[in-house]
Design goal:
The complex is a heterodimer. Chain A is built from nine helices and ten strands. By secondary structure, chain A is an alpha/beta fold. In chain A, the strands form two sheets. A six-stranded mixed sheet of chain A has the order 6-7-8-3-9-10, with helices on both faces. The longest helix of chain A has 17 residues, at about 175-190. Chain B has one domain (about 1-125, about 140-280): Orthogonal Bundle (ABC transporter involved in vitamin B12 uptake, BtuC), CATH 1.10.3470. Helices cover about 70% and strands about 5% of the residues of chain B. Chain B contains eleven helices and two strands, in the order H-H-H-H-E-E-H-H-H-H-H-H-H. Chain B has helices at about 1-30, 40-60, 60-85, 90-115, 140-160, 165-170, 175-180, 185-210, 220-235, 240-260, 265-280; strands spanning about 130-135, 135-140. A two-stranded antiparallel ribbon of chain B has the order 1-2. In chain B, helix 2 crosses helix 8 (about 185-210). Classes of the chains: A alpha/beta, B mainly alpha. At the A-B interface, helix 2 and helix 3 of A face helix 6 and helix 7 of B. The complex binds adenosine-5'-triphosphate and magnesium ion. The site of magnesium ion has 3 residues of chain A, from helix 1.
Chain lengths: ~240, ~290
């Protein structure tokens, strides 16, 4: 297997806070990697750096062998990096269908489609996530569960190679969380995705991820198989007072 | 009396359609891109004085000069985007002030090189005969301008509501961040939409220029009409703009033929003010362009 994502010595400061501190890791094609860590550990910032929302103060990001450190967000999306948000960010004044349609039209493969074909493809993705009935509802009127699904549908509609999921289960009840987790596992198999998945619910990450990265105060403190990582003393220490590992 | 009725009906159509053409780009920039582009007034001037410069001073053919002046309008619009709109994206009042300043600078530059006493005449007359309508005879060039306006409206409406690029252009202003996220090159798309919106006023102005006496300050009166139509229409909704354009066209035709031509703009302004007091958001809701 070849490495799809290679992050080297990545650093991002906000004033006095070093949100991401000299982080290096690789993700291979087809892997599903969990990213965990206490609140404020720097997980979201790391995703923001990889997706191009922020540019790093130091370090390098390579995607399929290409240096993308200085690339714009839209260029990275076109290369195949898609993401979801801890706080869903869809376009509230557009319907669920239009939100997904927008992703298809923006993506590289959308250039070859007619408006009708793109519309049909958007329906396909909505259906995949059980949102068909909500197609004409404004995204701003959707419930949090539906927003999480819509974000996944939109991300998938870009036909990404790498999907970055930032807390897909936050704010959901256990049944909804289970459904989302099943869907992520399903799309990963069906669409041949590589996934980096941030989650607070460790049980889910332990079950779904083949590898887990642990961050604490901006640093990467562990990288390995889930069952090995949770036994590491520094990981247990990081989580003391946070939650049960 | 019958003649007056014919005139009012004919000129309601002529003025209304023409004003729609004049306001089309402004309505689209406010509705689609959410920018109140006060530099829009300069486009009218650049279109005609640009053509005049290339044709009369440089010596190009008329068609080449028109094409070059439209290129100049596009370059100007792009520069306005890069230099003003992008820079002041977060500071709206400064942006508005800067946009007006750009308009005035263009106006003063043109007034310097082509002062009012210099007769500027561009032979863009396509049909110079009179067209009979009921009891009235209408200059053919007015009729041409009205139909070109309507054709532009139809083309732009189809583009923005039915095509992929039109959809993307309508979506970008909703959320810059979400746009980048789905792979849309925000700056390029925005600039392109602004340039597309700058073409209709240039074309309409070139068509009317043989009928209206040109002077370097004509931009303001034409731009006032564009603002009136856009504001009365609900800032961005094209259905609203269509209603607004014909209402203003009717007022002007009515006042022009039955009262006093010198009151045409004043009474239109007063009526629009009164309508806006009753309906501050204009005639149509501006969330969508159609
Ligand atoms: N835009 C920003 N400006 C200033 N500080 C920021 C910004 N974004 C993140 N931070 C800070 O950087 C640190 C890391 O934040 P980040 O959101 O990456 O953590 P996280 O691991 O995602 O936390 P959580 O589990 O709560 O989502 C925090 O101290 C946060 O306050
Ligand atoms: Mg976070």
């Amino acid at each position: 297997m070849i490495e799809m994502l290679k992050v080297s010595n990545l650093t991002k400061r906000f004033g006095g806070i070093i949100a991401v501190n000299d982080v290096s890791f690789e993700i291979k094609k087809g892997e599903i990697v969990g990213l965990i860590g206490p609140n404020g550990a720097g997980k979201t910032t790391l995703v923001n750096l990889i997706s191009g929302f922020y540019s790093p103060d130091r370090g390098k990001i390579e995607f399929n062998g290409k240096n993308i450190t200085k690339m714009r967000m839209d260029e990275r999306a076109k290369l195949g990096i898609a993401r979801t948000f801890q706080n869903p960010r869809v376009i509230p004044n557009m319907t669920a269908h239009m939100n997904v349609l927008y992703a298809i039209l923006g993506s590289e493969h959308g250039k070859e489609l007619t408006m009708t074909e793109a519309g049909a493809e958007a329906i396909y993705y909505l259906d995949l996530f059980g949102l068909l009935k909500k197609r004409d509802v404004l995204a701003g009127d959707l419930a949090i569960y539906e927003l999480r699904l819509l974000e996944l549908a939109r991300a998938l509609a870009l036909r990404p190679k790498l999907l970055l999921v930032d807390e897909a289960m936050a704010g959901l009840n256990p049944a909804e969380a289970e459904a989302v987790s099943k869907l992520i596992n399903r799309i990963r198999n069906e669409f041949d995705l590589t996934i980096m998945w941030i989650e607070h619910v460790l049980k889910v990450i332990m079950r779904s991820a083949e590898r887990v990265l642990v961050m604490h105060y901006g640093r990467l403190i562990a990288d390995g198989k889930p069952e090995e990582v949770v036994k590491k003393p520094e990981v247990i220490e990081a989580y003391i007072g946070e939650e049960e590992v | 009396m019958i003649a007056e009725v014919s005139l009012i009906v004919a000129y309601t159509f002529i003025f209304g359609s023409m004003y729609l053409g004049i306001a089309l780009g402004f309505t689209l920039t406010t509705g689609v891109l959410r920018v109140f582009n006060l530099a829009y007034g300069a486009i009218f001037l650049i279109a005609v004085y640009g053509t005049w410069m290339f044709w009369n001073d440089v010596g190009f053919g008329l068609i080449e000069s028109i094409v070059l002046s439209i290129v100049l309008v596009s370059v100007f619009t792009y520069a306005v985007y890069r230099i003003v709109i992008l820079k002041f994206a977060e500071l709206e009042d400064y942006m508005l002030a800067a946009l007006v300043a750009v308009f005035v600078i263009v106006e003063e530059l043109i007034a310097y090189f082509y002062p009012e006493i210099v007769g500027v005449y561009i032979p863009t007359t396509i049909y110079g005969e009179l067209v009979p309508f009921g009891e009235a005879n209408i200059p053919g060039q007015y009729v041409v301008t009205a139909f070109v306006s309507l054709a532009l409206l139809a083309i732009y409406l189809l583009f923005f509501t039915k095509t992929k690029n039109g959809f993307i252009m309508r979506a970008i202003s909703q959320d810059m961040f979400a746009s980048k996220l789905v792979g849309v090159n925000f700056n390029r798309t925005f600039a392109l939409a602004m340039i597309i919106a700058s073409i209709p006023p240039a074309i309409i102005m070139l068509l009317i220029s043989p009928i209206w006496a040109l002077n370097p300050y004509i931009g303001w009166s034409v731009f006032t009409i564009a603002i009136l139509v856009a504001v009365l229409g609900g800032l961005g909704n094209l259905k609203g703009s269509i209603m607004a354009a014909y209402i203003i066209g009717f007022i002007q035709a009515f006042v022009g033929f039955l009262l006093d031509p010198r009151l045409m703009l004043l009474i239109a302004l007063i009526v629009v003010m009164i309508v806006l007091i009753v309906r501050p958001k204009g005639l149509a809701r501006a969330e969508t362009i159609w």
